[in-house]
Amino acid sequence: METAILWHTGPLIDDVEIAQVHDLAAAAEREDGVAPLSEQPLLNLRDATDDVVHLLTWRAGELAGYAQVDKRGDAPSAELVVRPGHRRRGLGFHLLGSAADRAAEPPPTADDDAHGGLPSSRAEHDGEPAPAPLRVWAHGDLPAARGLAARAGYAVVRELLVLERPLGGPADHPTPTLPDGLRLRAFVPGQDDDAWVRANALAFAQHPEQGRLTVADLHARTREDWFDPAGLLLLERTTPAGPAELVGFVWTKIPTGQPDGAREGEIYVVGVVPAAQGEGLGRVLTAAGLAHLAAQGVTTAVLYVDGDNVPAVRTYERAGFTRRAVHVQYARTARGTTA
């Protein structure tokens, strides 16, 4: 069967198309036990940027497959999902190949606008460096994803660990004692936005996704139904002579709609600016995040951390976290076939 894949840059056309992607992702999660699309691609569904490309294919009157290419950052990244009823027919392979083609296309130029918005030929961009190879996330490291990667010539280049630990009650997780000269307070929307973005950029300067967040990205997250400013705690260093300095933060996330007695919460982000690293503040912030989650009735805490971030992994293991799952990122190998 011929596979027709339609694509366009963001945002998606309307709420109907956005709902179709969410429905497809939910169907895959029910089948696989893991969400196929992470938070950022879902936020990108409404993001009006030419740096995000959406790829969609329909069969039998329903959205059968979806992929997204995000060209922001040092290398383009993609995530894709195929509806369970349409699997094992080559659809994932075709989506991956089309995503790689879109990632390899040069960005639009001012000359493209002069041509009526149509992209000019690749030859006109020959003076520009070639785009970095596409990287593709596979959530849960499922056998089907490994098979698709092998067929398309992709190999694992990055691991993202999912860690978890049970929580007792608030008495088991008291708010940690802070070193002298430090205070912990809740984020104030509209007041702390710029300071948080600056601190986050410093703390994650080498991180391919977290470190590039903008004020607009922050606002997109604060509009989500799970956001609670009381769950974003700012660690400040105080001085008698000047304003307090933001040196770290811990952001927690508690998804809505969970039953009492079985609530899961996330240590969403822990960041410490370089000037304050080496003082054990990551451990203090993690404890503060766990205390907040326990006070909200959360029974299980989870977090995500890069597998090669050895200091962070050790900090979380000392805090009682163990591995639940792993997400992997693939890139084409030197001997990879053409998808």
Automatic annotation (TrEMBL):
<dbReference type="GO" id="GO:0035447">
    <property type="term" value="F:mycothiol synthase activity"/>
</dbReference>
<dbReference type="InterPro" id="IPR017813">
    <property type="entry name" value="Mycothiol_AcTrfase"/>
</dbReference>
<feature type="binding site">
    <location>
        <begin position="309"/>
        <end position="314"/>
    </location>
    <ligand>
        <name>acetyl-CoA 2</name>
    </ligand>
</feature>
<keyword id="KW-0012">Acyltransferase</keyword>
<feature type="binding site">
    <location>
        <begin position="270"/>
        <end position="272"/>
    </location>
    <ligand>
        <name>acetyl-CoA 2</name>
    </ligand>
</feature>
<dbReference type="InterPro" id="IPR000182">
    <property type="entry name" value="GNAT_dom"/>
</dbReference>
<dbReference type="Pfam" id="PF00583">
    <property type="entry name" value="Acetyltransf_1"/>
</dbReference>
<feature type="binding site">
    <location>
        <position position="266"/>
    </location>
    <ligand>
        <name>1D-myo-inositol 2-(L-cysteinylamino)-2-deoxy-alpha-D-glucopyranoside</name>
    </ligand>
</feature>
<protein>
    <recommendedName>
        <fullName>Mycothiol acetyltransferase</fullName>
        <ecNumber>2.3.1.189</ecNumber>
    </recommendedName>
</protein>
<keyword id="KW-0808">Transferase</keyword>
<comment type="function">
    <text>Catalyzes the transfer of acetyl from acetyl-CoA to desacetylmycothiol (Cys-GlcN-Ins) to form mycothiol.</text>
</comment>
<comment type="subunit">
    <text>Monomer.</text>
</comment>
<feature type="domain" description="N-acetyltransferase">
    <location>
        <begin position="14"/>
        <end position="185"/>
    </location>
</feature>
<feature type="domain" description="N-acetyltransferase">
    <location>
        <begin position="182"/>
        <end position="339"/>
    </location>
</feature>
<dbReference type="InterPro" id="IPR050832">
    <property type="entry name" value="Bact_Acetyltransf"/>
</dbReference>
<feature type="binding site">
    <location>
        <position position="253"/>
    </location>
    <ligand>
        <name>1D-myo-inositol 2-(L-cysteinylamino)-2-deoxy-alpha-D-glucopyranoside</name>
    </ligand>
</feature>
<feature type="binding site">
    <location>
        <position position="304"/>
    </location>
    <ligand>
        <name>1D-myo-inositol 2-(L-cysteinylamino)-2-deoxy-alpha-D-glucopyranoside</name>
    </ligand>
</feature>
<comment type="similarity">
    <text>Belongs to the acetyltransferase family. MshD subfamily.</text>
</comment>
<dbReference type="InterPro" id="IPR016181">
    <property type="entry name" value="Acyl_CoA_acyltransferase"/>
</dbReference>
<keyword id="KW-0677">Repeat</keyword>
<feature type="binding site">
    <location>
        <begin position="277"/>
        <end position="283"/>
    </location>
    <ligand>
        <name>acetyl-CoA 2</name>
    </ligand>
</feature>
<feature type="binding site">
    <location>
        <position position="209"/>
    </location>
    <ligand>
        <name>1D-myo-inositol 2-(L-cysteinylamino)-2-deoxy-alpha-D-glucopyranoside</name>
    </ligand>
</feature>
<feature type="binding site">
    <location>
        <position position="39"/>
    </location>
    <ligand>
        <name>1D-myo-inositol 2-(L-cysteinylamino)-2-deoxy-alpha-D-glucopyranoside</name>
    </ligand>
</feature>
<feature type="region of interest" description="Disordered">
    <location>
        <begin position="101"/>
        <end position="134"/>
    </location>
</feature>
<feature type="binding site">
    <location>
        <begin position="80"/>
        <end position="82"/>
    </location>
    <ligand>
        <name>acetyl-CoA 1</name>
    </ligand>
</feature>
